[in-house]
């Protein structure tokens, strides 16, 4: 240990760099809540004084309520479907040695790298050419598509730590694979499934580009925000709304990561 | 193969033994069982990717006249895409912006990932979550935040002015290609950090001790062991940033101004106000094709470079 | 041991993984109530064979019969077998009682009856009152007992154990061996036990199958496997053994005279083997069957002179290496006494004599080693 400590001794310049980097990551985002309480229509220094007026205005906005409710609905449905598909995918990949699975996996993971504009446009073309009315349902379909890769990656961490002999023990004790899944696999990877649901909800809730193309006349919260940005006098309201969304997202994501760290497989390999 | 015994049974029993044989083959083959379990996800995803792409390709060969789309085969849209000087100029700008952005993001992320991989020993998970947390927040809000930071009346200008360092707002901050690059580099930071961090974390620490034992100092160790072994993560990070930023339209629309517009803004306009879906389809298909070719070329080059080194 | 020798019948079972033949045409019959061990080095196919009995692997060829019924078509959850896994596979999300009760789902017992069965099973493995413990509060030995109770509560026809003692330390392992054996005898259930530890196999088993390279080389009682190994591989794997290349020079009745390099003539009991003069064989000798003495003593059938090369005192016994002219390797000798021939023992380099009886010599077919 002492040798390792001497070999990898703390590196002060790098530590400074790391702190600066985190500042770069967080400072712009942190400005939103700061200015949201600022008693000025401009997001500018020096700060003018404390106010909660912008929050009050935003809470009173009926259009915001509608958009928020739409986003929650889309996010919840997309998260459930993406996680179901993710469970199949992650389970198959981690449980079996599948020949030729890499290119197949590539297809499933494609939405991670395809520019969302192109996916959004392509879905728009398909849906409108086949006469489907654009609605929240079409947005949900698009969101499921981009959530599945994230769900698989999240769940794979849980399934990988999952000892295969647990399922074999269940089978040995008289359960067919359906019962073994519900009595052993599901409870053991439940934290991972919850994490996947939370992360997929977050992704869908924050997603703008696909929703922009596929929502038709409906509004989700990001579309509502984008619309508000055209009016300078609405800026403080957007700051207030943005600050709230950021806070909620941080809490949800932190919870999800914490749950992921609590997966039984992860915990076990950590303690033994 | 091994089922020849059950398959070559007497004729009347053939079908029964065949189905039993198939069931047996299925139970025995991990690949088959794996694909069976994977099939719902795979089918949904493949269909959801292939069908829209096919439809877009088809549409790109049609022609828009007024509000109607003529279903006749024509290469006219592609001709426009590849000969129009505006598209060409936008293409080079897009390439420059997303290329620079990918390189810059990887460069500034590398020391951070290196620090966490090699110098953080306690609470590593906290650092990893800290590095990736902003990624999960709304993309739109992060871009909007930069508009607040860089704007004419934004945080930087007003801050510097209230400190008395400048008397006039700096105009070049917002609405420029540089603003787009900074914003994108911030937005995609997690895509650089994670793959690089993972590839650094995987490096067996005893390799570095061996290099030290064989006479390498810290710098030599880094360039001869750490960097080469982390290259897969670096290349992955470059791709993961270059490809999506090549097709981004929110950032240029919000902080790019007229000089910061990119190809995807045109796509969005063609599907919106300009209402020429076939041309928009041709443009987005061309973008995909060009990006794919570029990536394959980079991949091939990095393979070659690797062979050279070894 | 048991009257019926074919309660569990493994018939020409073969299993391949790609090009690797993990189990190669194995034939074994196990009697009802027998404690049977599959013994062999890692990679010999013993675990694969066990997993085929449990139903986790399907044989490519051959069939397994349990109580007369072919089981290859049956998935694990329908088989009358239960398994104690190598890592025990204790469900971490369930407490001890729920783990043990896991396999009772289909019996749909009333809660009280189920609790009674669980407590009974726990008491059987000396864990009475542990039902409410969380599974991560258990020690290695306790996990092993829970795994045993969980498997036995289903009253399997055959209990399969995959190196269940491998993760325990030496002292605990020896205690568990005795308990396991007592448990098996009181329940009368057929046990199939996989291990790479020959002492463990010999302590526990009624019979042992010694496996190597996917084949069952010898199936016999521990005594027979030790004293009458049928191949060089088995003789080499079980205990220590000296091997000598030899040629049969003549046979007379029950006795053969061998011509062995370094020894000249060596007398051996034929033991039913039909050997022709001139045949190349390998003569094998256990170290403890050799007697070491400072001077030649009469009476023994065989004797050879050598030089004491090394000696090691192990407490309950001593090991010696004796260099014999004309032999590549020194001869290993084990004796209970350190002071061979009286006094403080022999010095290294001293001339010694080795003697042994003709029925200590095991005659084996020569094969490439």
Tell me the name of the CATH homologous superfamily of the largest domain in chain B. Answer: MetI-like
Separation, N- and C-terminal Cα atoms of chain B: 41 Å
Question: Might you state the CATH topology name of the largest domain in chain B?
Answer: MetI-like fold
Helix vs. strand class of chain A:
mainly alpha
Mean pLDDT reading of chain B: 81
Beta-strand content estimate of chain B: under 5%
Rg of chain A, nearest Å: 23 Å
Helix % of chain B is over 70%
| Uncertain parts of chain A | 1-6, 264-272
Give the SSE order of chain A as H and E letters.
HHHHHHHHHHHHH
The parts of chain B where pLDDT drops under 50 for at least 5 residues are: 1-14
What pair of chains forms the biggest interface? A-B, 88 and 86 residues
Number of discrete domains of chain B: 2
Any overview of this molecule?
The complex is a heterotrimer of chains A (272), B (310) and C (369). The two termini of chain A are 19 Å apart. Chain A has 13 helices and no strands. Chain A has helices spanning 2-7, 12-36, 53-59, 62-95, 101-109, 116-129, 136-160, 164-172, 177-206, 209-214, 221-228, 235-261, 264-271. In chain A, 51% of the residues are buried. Chain B has 310 residues and is mainly alpha-helical. Chain B has 15 helices and two strands. Chain B has a two-stranded antiparallel ribbon with strand order 1-2. The longest helix of chain B has 35 residues, at 85-119. Chain C is of the alpha+beta class. Chain C has two domains: 8-237, Rossmann fold, CATH 3.40.50.300; 242-365, Beta Barrel (OB fold (Dihydrolipoamide Acetyltransferase, E2P)). Chain C is built from eight helices and 20 strands. In chain C, the strands form four sheets. In chain C, strands 6-7-8-3-9-10 form a six-stranded mixed β-sheet, sandwiched between helices. In chain C, strands 13-12-11-14-20 form a five-stranded antiparallel β-sheet, with no helix packed on it. In chain C, strands 15-19-16-17-18 form a five-stranded antiparallel β-sheet, with no helix packed on it. In chain C, helix 5 (170-187) links the parallel strand 7 and strand 8. The longest helix of chain C has 18 residues, at 170-187. Chains A and B meet through helix 2, helix 4, helix 5, helix 6 and helix 7 of A and helix 3, helix 5, helix 6, helix 7 and helix 8 of B.
């Amino acid at each position: 240990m002492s040798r390792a400590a001497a070999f990898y001794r703390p590196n002060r310049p790098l530590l400074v760099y790391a702190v600066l980097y985190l500042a770069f990551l967080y400072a712009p985002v942190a400005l939103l809540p700061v200015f949201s309480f600022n008693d000025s229509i401009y997001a500018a220094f020096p700060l003018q004084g404390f106010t909660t007026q912008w929050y009050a205005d935003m809470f009173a906005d009926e259009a915001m309520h509608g958009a928020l409710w739409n986003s929650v609905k889309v996010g919840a449905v997309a998260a459930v479907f993406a996680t179901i598909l993710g469970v199949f995918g992650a389970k198959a990949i981690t449980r079996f040695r599948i020949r030729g699975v890499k290119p197949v996996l590539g297809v499933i993971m494609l939405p991670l790298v395809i520019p969302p504009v192109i996916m959004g446009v392509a879905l728009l073309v398909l849906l409108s050419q086949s006469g489907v009315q654009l609605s929240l349902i079409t947005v949900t379909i698009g969101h499921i598509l981009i959530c599945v890769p994230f769900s698989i990656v999240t769940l794979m961490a849980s399934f990988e730590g999952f000892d295969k002999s647990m399922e074999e023990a269940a089978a040995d004790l008289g359960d067919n694979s359906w019962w073994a899944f519900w009595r052993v696999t599901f409870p053991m990877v439940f934290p991972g499934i919850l994490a996947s649901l939370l992360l997929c909800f977050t992704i869908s809730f924050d997603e703008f580009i696909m929703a922009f193309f596929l929502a038709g006349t409906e509004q989700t919260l990001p579309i509502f925000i984008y619309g508000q940005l055209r009016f300078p006098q609405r800026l403080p309201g957007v700051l207030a709304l943005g600050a709230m969304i950021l806070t909620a997202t941080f809490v949800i994501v932190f919870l999800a990561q914490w749950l992921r760290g609590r997966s039984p497989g992860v915990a076990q390999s950590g303690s033994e | 193969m091994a089922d020849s015994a059950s398959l070559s049974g007497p004729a009347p029993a053939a079908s029964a033994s065949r189905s039993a044989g198939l069931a047996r083959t299925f139970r025995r083959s991990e690949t088959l069982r794996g694909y069976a379990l994977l099939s719902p996800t795979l089918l949904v995803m493949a269909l959801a990717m292939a069908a829209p792409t096919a439809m877009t390709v088809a549409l790109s060969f049609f022609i828009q006249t007024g509000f109607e789309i003529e279903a006749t085969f024509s290469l006219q849209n592609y001709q426009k895409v590849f000969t129009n000087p505006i598209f060409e100029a936008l293409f080079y700008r897009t390439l420059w912006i997303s290329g620079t952005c990918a390189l810059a993001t990887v460069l500034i992320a590398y020391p951070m990932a290196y620090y966490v991989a090699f110098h953080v020993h306690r609470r590593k998970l906290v650092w990893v979550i800290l590095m990736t947390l902003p990624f999960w927040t709304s993309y739109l809000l992060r871009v909007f935040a930069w508009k607040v930071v860089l704007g004419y009346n934004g945080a930087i200008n007003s801050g510097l002015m209230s400190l008395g360092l400048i008397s006039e707002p700096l105009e070049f901050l917002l609405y420029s290609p540089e603003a787009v690059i900074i914003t994108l580099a911030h937005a995609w930071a997690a895509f650089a950090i994670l793959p690089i961090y993972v590839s650094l974390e995987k490096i067996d620490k005893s390799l570095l001790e061996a290099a030290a034992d064989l006479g390498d100092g810290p710098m030599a160790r880094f360039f001869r062991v750490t960097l080469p072994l982390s290259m897969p993560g670096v290349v992955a990070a470059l791709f993961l940033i270059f490809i999506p930023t090549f097709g981004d339209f929110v950032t240029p629309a919000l902080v790019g101004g007229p000089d910061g517009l990119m190809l995807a803004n045109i796509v969005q306009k063609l599907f919106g106000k300009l209402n020429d879906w076939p041309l928009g389809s041709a443009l987005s298909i061309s973008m995909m094709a060009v990006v794919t070719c570029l990536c394959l070329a980079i991949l091939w080059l990095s393979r070659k470079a690797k062979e050279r080194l070894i | 041991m048991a009257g019926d020798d074919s309660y569990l019948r493994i018939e020409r079972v073969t299993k391949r993984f790609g090009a690797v033949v993990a189990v190669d045409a194995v034939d074994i019959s196990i009697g009802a109530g027998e404690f049977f061990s599959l013994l062999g080095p890692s990679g010999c196919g013993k675990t694969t064979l066990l997993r085929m009995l449990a139903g986790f692997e399907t044989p490519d060829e051959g069939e397994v019969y349990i109580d007369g019924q072919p089981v290859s078509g049956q998935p694990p959850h329908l088989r009358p077998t239960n398994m104690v896994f190598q890592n025990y596979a204790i469900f971490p999300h369930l407490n001890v009682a729920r783990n043990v009760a896991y396999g009772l789902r289909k019996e749909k017992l009333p809660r009280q009856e189920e609790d009674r069965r669980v407590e009974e099973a726990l008491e059987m493995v000396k864990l009475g009152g542990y039902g409410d413990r969380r599974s991560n509060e258990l020690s290695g030995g306790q996990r092993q007992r829970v795994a045993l109770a969980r498997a036995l509560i289903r009253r399997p026809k055959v209990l399969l154990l995959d190196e269940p003692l491998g993760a325990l330390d030496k002292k605990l392992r020896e205690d568990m061996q005795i308990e396991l054996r007592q448990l098996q005898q009181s329940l009368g259930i057929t046990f199939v036990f996989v291990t790479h530890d020959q002492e463990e196999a010999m302590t526990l088993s009624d019979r042992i199958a010694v496996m190597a390279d996917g084949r069952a080389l010898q199936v016999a009682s521990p005594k027979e496997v030790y004293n009458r190994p049928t191949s060089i591989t088995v003789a080499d794997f079980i205990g220590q053994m000296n091997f000598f290349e030899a040629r049969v020079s003549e046979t007379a009745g029950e006795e053969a005279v061998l011509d062995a390099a370094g020894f000249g003539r060596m007398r051996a009991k034929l033991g039913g083997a039909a050997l022709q003069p001139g045949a190349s064989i390998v003569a094998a000798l256990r170290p403890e069957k050799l007697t070491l003495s400072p001077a030649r003593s009469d009476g023994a059938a065989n004797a050879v002179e050598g030089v004491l090369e090394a000696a090691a005192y192990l407490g309950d016994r001593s090991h010696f290496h004796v260099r014999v002219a004309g032999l590549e390797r020194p001869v290993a000798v084990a004796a209970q006494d350190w002071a061979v021939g009286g006094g403080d023992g022999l010095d290294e380099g001293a001339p010694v004599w080795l003697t042994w009886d003709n029925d200590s010599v095991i005659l084996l077919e020569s094969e490439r080693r």
